[in-house]
Amino acid sequence: MKVGLSAAVAVALLVSLVAAGALDASAPIPGFRPPAVPLVLMDPYMNVWLRGTNLTDTWATYWDGTVKALVGLVRIDGTAYRFMGPEGEAGGNLPQPIQQLSSTVYPTQSVFTFGAKGVELTVTFTTPLLTDDIEVMSRPVTYLTFSVRSTDHASHRVELYYDNTAEWCVNTVDQFVEWKRFSDSRTLEVMRIGTSAQPVLQRSGDGVGIDWGYVYVATEKNDPKLQTVISGGLESRNQFVSSGALPPKDDTRMPRAASDDWPVMAVRWSLTTGPSGEPVSRYLMLAYDDRFSIKWFGTPFPPYWNRNMRPDAVEMLETAAHDYTKLIVRCTTFDRSLVNELEQAGGQKYATIAALAYRQCAGGTKLVWNTKENKLWYFMKEISSDGDLSTVDVIYPASPFFLHFNPELLRLLLVPLLEYANNETSVLYNFPWAPHHLGEYPIGYILPKDQENMPVEETGNLFMMILGIVQRQKNDLTWLFPRYSKLLEMWAGYLVASLPDPGNQLCTDDFEGPSPHNANLAAKGVVGLSAYAKILETAGNTTVMADGPETGAFYYQRLAEKFMSQWMQLAATNATGVPHYKLEYDIAESWSLKYNIAYQKFVGLDIFPQAVINTELNYYMKQMNTYGVPLDVRSDFTKLDWESWVGAMSDNKDDWTTIIDKIYLFADTTPDRIPLTDWYWTSTGRFRGFIARPVLGAVYAKLLLHQQQ
């Protein structure tokens, strides 16, 4: 293999594609300043961001702000610069920052460009979360590509340095770690670090890091000027700055705390840029083998990529290296194509926000292998708002993302919930409505008494999502009937008994406190019941059963229509002088975003007339603040996911433009440098709560509806 062939070929192919016009010119808005930039987002634990604009502003952090340090240094003709990581480090300072020229967030890639002394450096983080390729999507690898080129028609000597600390594999830095180098790979230099204790699946909840499994760094070894080392961070960085080289041998003082001289895995390349301006590139892979990902009622499930306990991590990395060139080209082509589609659907500001949300949504999930049933399962973490496992009302807002890209992934998210509710685990679930969640990530275990019950909320959510899946999978119901026939019939009966007024129930907006007689929740129940009727119609169950109570598609649809008519009478108000529909049936002056009605459009139902939507949107436009429309009358904060839905459900392009412009302004200017929140103040643009949540797959509702037209 020619030295650096994979990276060079990938860059050359991309240059040729651009020159040939194969990559559409559509791109996120230049100069957009996201609240935080996704760097390494593979799953809920490998979920690392830059809480700043420049890679040198601050340390890379876990979604919750815990440091997961990355350092990048470059020497250009003997002068050292820092392109990744802040100036201060334990025991000294890193060199001066190189000028960052730009940063762009695409769906699967974050690209940074820098310049100094006639050299341009491009650093690209690529996580190939390609939803149409489950094998690749499940692979826990992020590629870091480093490309340098001359910009002054002169040759330059360039040395590149990268390291990451052991912070990546601990929950707290006092935990002891040890490391290993692998010599059995013919093509790769492979290093790893992990905790000594390896407490597999012994920690759960929110705001905790993984402390089992191993973080890996791997790079192609067929480069005579390549150096790699595992050593104390200060020694490694200082030696590179002074000489352009690394310490000659690995540190052997282990195990030791991750904070004890901060052990790092470091890589160094020595390159020469030619006067032609052709790029010279290298890459490495940052990977994490968690060994086991989910414990399901006592049984640990491995990640899907390692479903047969083979390949091992080194073999997986060799495959990932083999696939590097084609995956970089695939991701780049996919990103540009998707951004173009998004722009056509909702404008460039929409494309920019949706590109930022892509990895936030997909990176909040985990593909695993159910060893009990020998099949693929999929789970989502309720990041930052409880740490729950596969919360139904977190999957629900994210569902447009999956319905658009791969409805099978949404089906795989729902199957564990259906099995739990159907009493196919060791726990007896004894409620007549759908469950709220499955435990505390990554532990699948919960008793019914510990559920955060949202009866109409979750039941309606599941019916709507199931219909969306069925419609996009050629009306295939074999996974649903007869296995879950009685379960779904019981849930439908619960909705019938609860409508048109669900009383005093919790809904997904429970952070606002009780909201009895909630009109938006009732609307969800109505659409959910209509969705169940459509599921039955698809199954051919359209008749009244002769030997039992009245059932069937026509029966439930008639009831849904009756409840909708009652809803319109109960919810309609003109108390404020502008017609709209209330937040709560018994408060005439109240109002709220009726985002649940939007789902009828996602699944082709028309249970609520368009006139209801038009009336609501007209009212929302009159409540608009600087950064968006509030969620309801009780406060001026909003939910970005629901804003995007009410904008998408409008037939008026101006309504959509107004809402997406406000969302973009918020994201571009909020002073809170955190992974994009879905809960913020519309008057100030400040963070109210929740960060990095996969619910922002909701913004793909506009694209979903655009593609259905």
UniProtKB/TrEMBL annotation:
<dbReference type="InterPro" id="IPR052743">
    <property type="entry name" value="Glutaminase_GtaA"/>
</dbReference>
<dbReference type="Pfam" id="PF17168">
    <property type="entry name" value="DUF5127"/>
</dbReference>
<feature type="signal peptide">
    <location>
        <begin position="1"/>
        <end position="20"/>
    </location>
</feature>
<dbReference type="InterPro" id="IPR033433">
    <property type="entry name" value="GtaA_N"/>
</dbReference>
<protein>
    <submittedName>
        <fullName>Glutaminase GtaA, putative</fullName>
    </submittedName>
</protein>
<dbReference type="InterPro" id="IPR032515">
    <property type="entry name" value="DUF4964"/>
</dbReference>
<dbReference type="InterPro" id="IPR032514">
    <property type="entry name" value="GtaA_central"/>
</dbReference>
<feature type="domain" description="Glutaminase A N-terminal">
    <location>
        <begin position="108"/>
        <end position="339"/>
    </location>
</feature>
<feature type="domain" description="Glutaminase A central">
    <location>
        <begin position="347"/>
        <end position="703"/>
    </location>
</feature>
<dbReference type="Pfam" id="PF16335">
    <property type="entry name" value="GtaA_6_Hairpin"/>
</dbReference>
<dbReference type="Pfam" id="PF16334">
    <property type="entry name" value="DUF4964"/>
</dbReference>
<feature type="domain" description="DUF4964">
    <location>
        <begin position="32"/>
        <end position="87"/>
    </location>
</feature>
<keyword id="KW-0732">Signal</keyword>
